[in-house]
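Morning run. Coffee first, then this:
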Amino acid sequence: MFWSMVNLNRSRQLTICFTLMFKGKKTMKKIMKFGLIACLCFLAAACVSSKPEKQAVNLLSLSVDEIIEEARKEGVVQSVGMPSNWANWGGSWQALKEKYGIDHSDLDLSSAEELSTFEIEKDSPTKDLGDVGYSFGLVAIEKDLVQPYKASVWESIPNWAKDPEGRWVVSYTGTISLISNKNLVPDPPRSWQDVLSGDYSITPGDVVRGASSQMSVLSAAFAFGGGLENVQPGIDFFVELAKAGRIDPGEMSEGRMAKGEIAVGMHYDFSGISWRESIGAVNPDLVVETHIPQDGAFQSGYSLIINKFAPHPHAAALAVEYLLSDEGQIDRANGFARPIRSDVKIPDEVLMKLIPDEEYLNVITSSDISAINQACSEISRLWEEEVIPNIK
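And here it is:
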């Protein structure tokens, strides 16, 4: 009742007060009592509304030793989108526990869901750290969801792979690759031109919605004279394949590859290598081979972001510090992901599992995230309009 009175506009309040004044002394005492309570309510509401917003820790002002000290006190880091079975995150979480006593938990989410979680939990955050697709770093900044931190190896990170202010940083790359079932394609393609000259079906995946599938079309666009500003050559390439009945519109997945349903598919390199190992362990007769297309392969990465109001900000910063260290980068290589730092010596036994360095000499990168997003949006639209109608 009191709040309904408080919410009346001023003229309505005055009307009520003057009306009550003419109803006698007893009523006036009630009005005075009511007014006192209303004033107290106003004061309480003012105190609540003027409560200062929680300020994020300035991680940039702290030394690594200070971060370690505070992280040990926090004792835990809670991540999103960084499960133990992806890119060997599990090895890194175990190392953080052994080196610093930091426990870990994760909620496996997509990049969009990670940012939504940060935003929804603004007033009562539970998550500290996320790993999002390259283009989502800019979205996180626009939504004011992240706080900056620059690891001690910051200068070793390529400029395209980090925000100048430290609000996101790529820890490993993903390069579009051609993943082949050698039982179906004895001579696996090593370029988009090889694909065009073949007679097998290809599986691009969900180009309308899938980031890796859109990157495949963008890579083909570069191969045939296009680029970020002109994706049409990539679309034309796939239209030609569609008209020839060579596009498999099904899901591009490890499960389908393991069943022998995919001849040649397109995905990030670390997926291709991981599938090769896991499928080979279960079915040695099915041989998977992965190559970087030499005439056009777009390389992006996955970016670490620290929640602006992380409940354990120092532990999050320490996690970033470790994940970008030599040890953390080797962990990524052990998970078949290519480390972002080129100055880290990867052990020979790990390196031999990865795609050779020479296949990456002509990869394409860009720091213009807005242009990448625009290109992917255009690819999605054109795929629906021009490619799908021609798939047989």
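The chain has three domains: 1-32, 59-172+302-360, 174-299+363-390. Good start to the day.
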